[in-house]
């Protein structure tokens, strides 16, 4: 089974004709069966807010939830393990409506570029897995040291043994602080592919406006076709292949996602009804 989604639901105005406002979740879920949310990365919302999302989507709709930055050791709070454990409890309470309604696809743990392959960091991964026992987890690394041989083979074995999805990442190749595209299945239930674009200059852009450049990229039909061919090779080895388009900076994500959907010749069932003013791309 293939599923395709975008990061956030509000940004993709191109899905609906003549719209000049953020999309609602109800509108977004007329086009895609899943969404990735970084809301939790910045702060943990109230459980009532999370429960309200479920009233806007079909019963089969699934959420990819990005783990809070404190769990993945991003700079900011510098919490102790006891403090992290307490925050994880708050996180688990907040996502409980998604868990209870089978609407959580996975928790995306995206580690910072300086989180490298060390014994200390592997120990932290074990701690995080224990704290989040029973929840579907996906790990995305952004330091190349995890992909050096023989470390990568050990990482694949580690993820496989713990039923963790090792995220397949498409991003610019800019040295040690980037990772290669490695379509490896470590969880028979889910292969998660995240497409950040291939804009090398934008990826390395510094300054307060870096978000405007980092994922500014429009995948060509040839690039999407090659991605399709790669995914087809994996489709008989995993229950679900979920592709998330994160190339939002220039508004290309929705267009690229619909193009790949057409190439894969797939149809999503049980979506919300599309608004009559929708742009009929295909």
Shape: globular
Summarize the biggest pleated sheet. Answer: 9 strands, parallel
- The level-1 CATH class: Alpha Beta
Fraction in beta strands: 15-25%
User: Portion of residues in helices?
Assistant: 25-40%
Compute the gyration radius: what is it?
Answer: 18 Å
CATH superfamily: Protein of unknown function UPF0759
Mean pLDDT: 93
How many runs of DSSP E, i.e. beta strands?
Answer: 9
- Give the neighbour order of strands across the main sheet: 6-5-4-3-2-1-9-8-7
Q: Please give the count of helices.
A: 11
CATH topology: TIM Barrel
- Secondary-structure arrangement, i.e. CATH architecture: Alpha-Beta Barrel
Structural class: alpha/beta
How does this structure look, described?
- β4 (104-110), α6 and β5 form a beta-alpha-beta unit.
- The protein has a nine-stranded parallel beta sheet with strand order 6-5-4-3-2-1-9-8-7.
- By secondary structure, the chain is of the alpha/beta class.
- The model has no long low-confidence stretch (mean pLDDT 93).
- The protein is 33% helix and 15% strand.
- The protein has helices at residues 25-28, 39-42, 47-54, 81-94, 96-100, 119-131, 151-161, 200-203, 211-214, 221-234, 253-264; strands spanning 2-7, 34-37, 62-66, 104-110, 137-140, 165-166, 168-170, 190-195, 240-245.
- It starts with a strand and ends in an 18-residue tail after the last helix.
């Amino acid at each position: 089974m293939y599923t395709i989604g975008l990061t956030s639901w509000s940004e993709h105005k191109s899905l609906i004709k003549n719209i000049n406002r953020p999309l609602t979740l109800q509108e977004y879920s007329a086009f895609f069966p899943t969404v990735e949310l970084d809301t939790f990365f910045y702060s943990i919302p109230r459980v009532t807010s999370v429960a309200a999302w479920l009233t806007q989507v079909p019963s089969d709709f699934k959420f990819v939830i990005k783990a809070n930055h404190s769990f993945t050791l991003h700079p900011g709070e510098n919490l102790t393990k006891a403090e992290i454990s307490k925050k994880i409890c708050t996180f688990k309470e907040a996502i409980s409506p998604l868990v209870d309604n089978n609407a959580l696809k996975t928790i995306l743990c995206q580690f910072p570029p300086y989180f490298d392959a060390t014994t200390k960091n592997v120990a932290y991964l074990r701690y995080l897995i224990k704290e989040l026992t029973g929840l579907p987890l996906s790990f995305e690394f952004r330091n190349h040291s995890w992909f050096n041989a023989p470390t990568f083979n050990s990482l694949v074995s580690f993820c496989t043994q713990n039923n963790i999805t090792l995220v397949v990442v498409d991003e610019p190749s800019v040295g040690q602080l980037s990772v290669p595209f490695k379509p490896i299945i470590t969880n028979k239930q889910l292969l998660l592919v995240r497409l950040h674009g291939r804009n090398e200059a934008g990826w390395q852009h510094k300054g307060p406006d870096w978000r405007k450049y980092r994922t500014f990229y429009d995948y060509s039909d040839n690039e999407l076709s090659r991605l399709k061919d790669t995914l087809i090779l994996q489709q008989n080895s995993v229950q679900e292949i979920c592709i998330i388009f994160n190339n939002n900076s220039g508004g290309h994500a929705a267009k690229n996602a619909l193009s790949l959907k057409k190439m894969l010749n797939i149809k999503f069932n049980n979506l919300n009804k599309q608004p009559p003013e929708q742009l009929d791309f295909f």
